[in-house]
Write the structure tokens for this entry.
Amino acid sequence: MFCDLKQAIQVSLLLEQEAAEAKDGDETEEEHIKAARRKILDSCDTLTRARYMRTFEYINEHAPYLGTLISRSKKRDELVQLIGEMQTMINHTHSEDASRLKARMGSYAAPHPDKQLVFPPIADDSKSRAKMGFNH
């Protein structure tokens, strides 16, 4: 879920448009619109597209109001504000998780992973939960 929500929504909607066009065989769409869509979709590989679609489906499942905002062009300002707030929280959570791991990461990254350098690999503290991993 740690991705650019705006881009995930944009790519997912473009993928849905492309699938609908392929299904209907509708040739009325103008060439410059198709070219713009292809340019955006070509910038993502298949794994990224799949991840964006999973994220989009997850968001639609857990925040159905967002789907309503996407379908209404009059609510575009509210949609942009809501996506911005969601992205801020995602970035904050991601940053907080990473910053807590940085101090401990050196204990687990061995220069030669095939050699056992420290036994036990997790610090043997007097705390009862020290053997469980990161400071439970």
